[in-house]
Amino acid sequence: MAKKKYLLGFSPDIVNEAIVYRLVKDYDLKINILRAEVRELGGRLLMEVEGKAANIKEAAGYLNEAKVDVQELATYVEKNEERCTHCGMCISICPVEALIMERPSWKVRYDSEKCIACGMCIDACPPGAIKFRI
Amino acid sequence: MKRTVEEINQKIRDGDVVVMTAEEVASYVQSEGVERAAKEVDVVTTGTFGAMCSSGAFLNFGHSEPPIRMQKVTLNDVPAYTGIAAVDAYIGATELKLDDHKEYGGAHVIEELVSGKAVRLKASSDGTDCYPRKEIDTFVSLHSMNQAYLFNPRNAYQNYAAGTNSSERTLYTYMGKLLQNYGNITYSSAGQLSPLLKDPSLRTIGIGTRIFLGGGTGYVAWEGTQFRTNVETKFGAPVGGARSLATVGDLRGMSPEFVRALNLPGYGVSLGMGVGVPIPVLDEDVMRAAALSDEQLFAPLIDYSVQSRNRRPIKHLSYAELRSGRVELFGKEVRTSSLSSYLKARQIAETLAERIENGEFLLTEPVAQLPSDRSVGTLEVRSREEAV
Ligand code: SF4
Ligand code: SF4
After folding, report:
1. Which of A112, B81, B147, B220 could hold A75 in an S-S bridge, CB 3.0 to 4.6 Å?
2. pLDDT tens string B200-251
3. Is the domain of A45 the same as that of A80?
4. Which residue has the least CA distance to atom 4 on ligand 2?
5. How far apart are CA A127 and CA B170, in angstroms?
6. Are residues A15 and A69 in the same domain?
7. Where are the alpha helices (DSSP H) in B78-174?
8. Interface test with B, best of A80, A84, A86, A92 (most B CBs within 10 A)
9. Residue at a domain's end among A37, A52, A73
10. Whether residue A57 sits in one domain with residue A33
């Protein structure tokens, strides 16, 4: 079983395609939608996909054919290490504890594996060290 | 055991001074006792790095040809106060850029200057016989200006209330983002490393005390604004906002590591300042206070959804509890966040210790003590007669 995070981009003409349904039904994937936006210029879908590695690969092929812009994400938000003061303001804000105060170094570590891209930490960070990658 | 500042300075010059950070000494005293620690350690260094809104810099730009008597000044479109001499100005940390949505302000200008960058200076004037010029649009930097020094009316607050929020919506405050229904707790003091908590009655800190300021060297200029002494204490240290310092120091020699623009969304811009104060161990009493640990230092917890200056603390929390990351509140576990950086506080105390050990930083005797009896008044809507 593999687990990957993808950002999908749709142009307006394919916003109505039942893409998630197809991914579940045809490729037997478990989908966790982390963020969804639909705008005039199309839509964006941030999701976590779990399933057989081969199926994920095939599904990506299907999406490409369907003219969906597929981007695999290693991380959701980025913490600028130069800007971060390691204050820890973000710690109690993150709902999934993806921002961790390490002891005894008192450095704040961002764990991209845990992050669900909710964005809560972004406007909580006083020096503006955290930004969406997408 | 007694020693004087002069004796300590002699040891610094001779290269055999013993310095410990306030964090190190807290555990040293727990294992070895106050008596032994006081005998062995000459200086305890402290540090804090947090949002200090009451900060800003005096600048002198030099005269242009023909000269101008500046009446309106902006730096990167952030207004600076210029109701002083012709080419002098004061840029306050929290001043916001004109037409900006609260994201860029005086603190950013100060950080850019400290980073060695040039900032855009625009000034205008009505023009006078001796200062005929009416406008100037140019760039200035630390290199081009005659003087550029921080003068911060209130830094290094001696303790500060922790915040939480009982209401149904997220609050954006100067204590950071406070989640609804007691969703989190934020605090801002460096606790056992915090300068004024380690010499609670300011026996050794006063006007003229040489300090670490923003990465460079600074001095205590005066009592900080809202300085007060009539605060409840535990183990001799105040359990709420009490004393503070007005500080001064050259921007040249400071570092953006310790002078950092901050943006508290929904509140505004502030300046993250690093301040460190060395405490000469004159006797055992000084050591006893300097060695207070996070278990012995407390902050009141305030509900920020109550919009009144008369908020009563929900309870008092030790810095050990706050720093543990989780606190129990009304039977529920609530996560905590610090607004100030303990890592940077520690780096400041360590840097200061190194400078002292290397003989680069001598200690000072206060030129004058700060007040020992001060309370803080309030602002009322009153008549001219009532005000006097
Ligand atoms: S709030 Fe920002 S500066 Fe503070 S630890 Fe988190 S990422 Fe770093
Ligand atoms: S985006 Fe959300 S989940 Fe990710 S680190 Fe920030 S607060 Fe945590």
Report:
1. A112
2. 999 999 999 999 999 999 999 999 999 999 999 999 999 988 999 999 999 9
3. no
4. A115
5. 20
6. yes
7. 106-114
8. A92
9. A73
10. yes
- Continuous H helices in A1-134: 19-27, 53-65
Q: Does one domain contain both A59 and A121? A: no
> What average pLDDT does chain B have?
96
**Residue linked to tokens 């610094």:** B12
Interface ipTM: 0.90
Is the minimum distance from the CB of A100 to ligand 2 under 6 angstroms? no
Residues of B marked active site are found at: 130
Confidence at residue A22, expressed as pLDDT on a 0 to 100 scale: 87
In this structure, the answer to whether residues A28 and A45 fall within a common structural domain is: yes
Q: CATH number, domain at A110?
A: 3.30.70.20
Tell me, what's the pLDDT at B70?
97
Amino acid residing at B31? S
Nearest to A92 among B263, B335, B343 (CB): B335
Q: Rg of the Cα trace of chain A? A: 17
Nearest CA to ligand 2 atom 7: A94
Question: pTM for this structure?
Answer: 0.89
Residue B119's closest CA among B159, B88, B78? B78
Q: What is the pLDDT of residues B47-92, one digit of tens each?
A: 999 999 999 999 999 999 999 999 999 999 999 999 999 999 999 9
Inspect the interface and report whether the beta carbons of A91 and B343 lie closer than 8 Å: no
**The domain containing residue A59 runs over which residues?**
2-73
- In the listed set A21, A56, A73, which residue is the last one of a domain according to the structure? A73
Residue A86: DSSP 8-state = -
What CATH number is attached to the domain comprising A40?
3.30.70.260
Same domain, A120 and A82: yes
Residues A62 and A47 in one domain: yes
pLDDT at A15 over 70: no
pLDDT digits (tens, 9 = 90+) for B327-344: 999 999 999 999 999 999
Domain shared by A82 and A63, yes or no = no
Position B34 confidence tier, pLDDT thresholds 50, 70, 90: very high
Count of domains observed in chain A: 2
Report pLDDT digits (tens) over A25-62: 999 999 988 878 777 777 888 888 899 999 998 998 88
User: Is the CB of residue A63 less than 8 Å from the CB of residue A18?
Assistant: no
